Amino acid sequence: MSGKIDARLSELGIELPTPTTPVASYVGFVQTGNLVYISGQVTVENGTIQYAGKLGAEFTVEQGYKAARICGINLLAQLKNACGGDLDRVKRVIRLGGFVACTADFTDHPKVINGASDLMAEVFGDLGQHARAAIGNPSLPLNTAVEIEGLFEIN
Predict the structure, then answer these.
(1) Main-chain dihedrals φ then ψ at residue 150, nearest 5 degrees
(2) 149 φ, ψ to 5°?
(3) Which of 87, 115, 149, 153 could connect to 65 by a Cys-Cys bridge, CB 3.0–4.6 Å?
(4) Could you tell me which of 72, 73, 89, 74 has the C-alpha nearest to residue 36?
């Protein structure tokens, strides 16, 4: 199915991957009414974890931004699956929750999670503006540097 959002992704040079299979006892997304909750997505690209390690040690803020963008692309892949292949059903990006594996003295979590937030605005325009949290953690699953979950409203 190809629509306005698919065309926008194409303009941005973004090809959505096949959604990843959960690595533990959970599902990729849950829909209740018009809300879709998407489980945390990590920095998997082409089946491989990118950016394994911590911000403030192995990675810079700029690299973290790129890691968060990968998470955002994986969120969109799960969302497209939840929408039956039609991202034009998205009414609003409501909230992103961002988690950054980092050193104790790292404080630029918001700048890192901007990688996913900026992507949502690029793809959905004003409908991509959302509430958000950006939290530092001593570690994340699979040693990934960033993990992001999302809440979306759909038709």
Answers:
(1) -145, 155
(2) -115, 165
(3) 115
(4) 89
> Nearest 5°: phi and psi at 17?
-80, 170
Query: Regarding beta strands 146-154 and 35-41, do their DSSP bridges make them parallel or antiparallel, or are they unpaired?
Result: antiparallel
Q: Is 81 helix (H, G, I), strand (E, B) or coil?
A: helix
CATH classification of the domain holding 75? 3.30.1330.40
Give the DSSP letter of residue 88.
Answer: G
**Looking at the 3D structure of the chain, how many domains does it have?**
1
